[in-house]
Amino acid sequence: MEERKMKLKFKGFRKQVTALELLSSEIIDRKTLIELTQGSKTVEDVTKMSAVKRYLEGTSCIAGVLIPSKNDPSRKEKMSIYQAIQKGHVRPGTGLVLLEAQAATGFIIDPLKNMKLSVDEAVAANVVGQELHAKLLSAERAVTGYKDPYTEQIGRAH
């Protein structure tokens, strides 16, 4: 039975998550875990549960902004939130809140390339600046989990 619990895997943000990890994170309850292991519920059934789906897939967020083009005001120019901050279209405090909300979904979105990136990847790709790295990493880890330096286990903030 214990082996079956470890084999029940869900597609998470960046890696597969076991049913036991969902239980220990309080995403599913013991009853749901038992139903999974007994086969009365499938991984697909549990994935469709709103609390589980929100944890595994995240929620939607603002990806970027559309600004009227300087050359042709009837056209809109798409840019990332960070670009909009840099160009003065979005206030720095407002932009940081929007970027933290993105990071809290597990990803920073590059609206120009239509890509979801981890905070580390977004900084490396210059989608966000290095000066925001620590703040955004903290928001991202609230969802993806913190590694306990003593046990090496991943935990989540509740």
What is the element layout, followed by pairings?
Layout: H1 2-7, E1 9-11, E2 16-18, H2 19-24, H3 30-38, H4 43-47, H5 50-57, E3 64-68, E4 76-80, H6 81-86, H7 92-103, E5 108-110, E6 115-117, H8 119-124, H9 133-144, E7 146-147, E8 154-155
Antiparallel strand pairs: 1-2, 3-4, 5-6, 7-8
Helix pairs in contact: 7-9
- Strand residue content: 15-25%
- Shape annotation: elongated
For the secondary structure, the number of strands is: 8
Mean pLDDT: 84
Rg, alpha carbons: 19 Å
- How are the strands of the largest sheet arranged? 1-2
Poorly predicted runs: none
Percent of residues in helical segments? Answer: 40-55%
Helix and strand content put the structural class at: alpha+beta
Order of helices and strands: HEEHHHHEEHHEEHHEE
Separation of the first and last Cα atoms = 28 Å
How many separate helices? 9
**Main sheet overview:** 2 strands, antiparallel
What can you tell me about this protein's structure?
- The protein is elongated and about 65 Å long.
- The two termini are 28 Å apart.
- The chain is 44% helix and 16% strand.
- A hairpin with a 4-residue loop joins strand 1 and strand 2.
- Helix 7 (92-103) packs parallel to helix 9.
- The protein is built from 9 helices and 8 strands.
- It has helices at 2-7, 19-24, 30-38, 43-47, 50-57, 81-86, 92-103, 119-124, 133-144; strands spanning 9-11, 16-18, 64-68, 76-80, 108-110, 115-117, 146-147, 154-155.
- The protein has a two-stranded antiparallel sheet with strand order 1-2.
- It is of the alpha+beta class.
